[in-house]
Amino acid sequence: MSRVRRVLTATAMATTLTATLAGGTAAAAGISTMGQGDKCTYNEQSMPPKLSHKGAGDKKYNNGVTENHGRVLILSTGKWPDYSAARLSGKVRKGDRVWVDISYDKGKNWQGCGGVSTDKKDKQFYSKWYRHSGDGVKGRVMRACARTTMGATDNGKRVTWCANVGDVKTPNTNRFWWSD
């Protein structure tokens, strides 16, 4: 094999390995690959009048808060009816995005729903709202996810991450969900 061909083969293998590792990392972390909440088969709901959030006041669940890159991500919920949405606050930057992942099998399979991006910085915002329980909804678990810049600028590298607290854990992963 010629030297040029060996270099091209090595380069192609490195590119494939990098792409595989990137996909593997996302899969291992349990990040939704469903367009970050763009397409959803579940019915969107309206924002409930009284809000709280999953894990509020519980030290076991870090008060329901996941902090990353200067942002605070929670799964916001209505007291009644029980609808949920992702909420991002803190050092929010233009172009940050939130959505909820919804699963009926404790996180083995999920669907990203309700993706919303912001055009303002430093202002909290919500994804679209979805029924968490009641009216024929059984066994549903949800988590909040976000795509943000890594730093305090609008043009930094974008990263996708999900809340790392919840009362249900997908076996053999680091994925946490909230049940009801």
Proportion in β-strands: 25-35%
Helix content: 10-25%
From the spread of the alpha carbons, the general shape counts as globular
Q: Structural class, please?
A: alpha+beta
Distance between the termini: 61 Å
Rg calc: 18 Å
Most strands sheet: 7 strands, antiparallel
Secondary-structure element order, N to C: HEEEEEEEEEEEEE
Assembly form of the protein: single chain
The count of helical stretches stands at 1
Written overview of the protein:
- The protein is of the alpha+beta class and 180 residues long.
- Helices cover 15% and strands 34% of the residues.
- The chain contains one helix and 13 strands, in the order αβββββββββββββ.
- It has one helix at 3-29, and strands at 44-45, 51-53, 66-68, 71-78, 83-90, 97-103, 111-117, 125-126, 129-131, 141-149, 158-162, 168-169, 176-177.
- Strands 1, 2, 3, 4, 5, 8 and 9 form a seven-stranded antiparallel sheet that branches. It has a four-stranded antiparallel sheet with strand order 7-6-10-11, with no helix packed on it. A two-stranded antiparallel sheet has the order 12-13.
- β6 and β7 form a beta hairpin.
- The radius of gyration is 18 Å and the shape is globular.
- The N and C termini lie far apart (61 Å).
- The model is unreliable at 1-30 (pLDDT under 50).
